[in-house]
Structures are given as C-alpha cells and as structure tokens.
Design goal:
Helix content is 37%, strand content 32%. The chain has 127 residues and is α+β, with helices and mostly antiparallel strands. It has a 5-stranded mixed β-sheet with strand order 1-2-3-4-5.
Length: 127
Amino acid sequence: MTENEIGTIVVQCAIEVHRELGPGLFESVYESCLAHELKERKLAVDRQMPIPIRYKEIEFDEGFIADVIIENKVILELKSVETITRAHKKQLQTYLRLTGMKLGYLLNFGEALMKNGIRRIVNGLDE
C-alpha cells in the first residue's frame, strides 16, 4: 500500500472519529479511537513509538515519540487545540526528515469540523 493510499484511509478514519466524538477531548482519546479504526481497516499501527535519532556520531535511543506510525510509512501527529501553529507543522516536518518517511498528517481534533483540522505534510513524496 502506498503512502497516498494510507493517507486516504487516515483522512476517512479521522473524520469518522471526530464525527462520532466531537471536538475538545484529550489527544489520547482520539489516538485510541483512531488507532482502532485504522486497525479495523487491516493497517499496522504503532502508537507512542519511540524513535531513535542520530546526532553527529551519537545515537540516542529515544529522540522523540511519534503519536502514531502506520505501516512504517506514515506519521500522524495528533493535536486537540484551538489553532494549529507553524511550530506544530515544523515539528512534523522534522519527524519526517529524521525518520526518512515521506508523508505525515497533522490532525487537530480541536476543530469544529475535522476537515479544517487536517494538514498533509510531505518530505520528498512523489505525488
């Protein structure tokens, strides 16, 4: 399955979860429900995944923790905030660069309409 195919499923599942629960809950609630929906669609889902990073010649076992990684191809960063900032976008861009993954989604479940809370971030992905 390609990154873009996974992305289509992510968007569908995020909208479904948001439609069912509404905005304003903790990110962990949305993460649990979204992971369930993705697994129902037979996708491999890892939650709160520690990602090692390399800094110069030093390897750090836990450089950051990714909210959700799907099929080892797509990173999801979940938020439940009033407004997504540039810092949130840069965070996901850095995650993509450090992992070598090509596609990520910043999902803000704090929006009144989920479609307004979806940001697709790419890192060298062929469209």
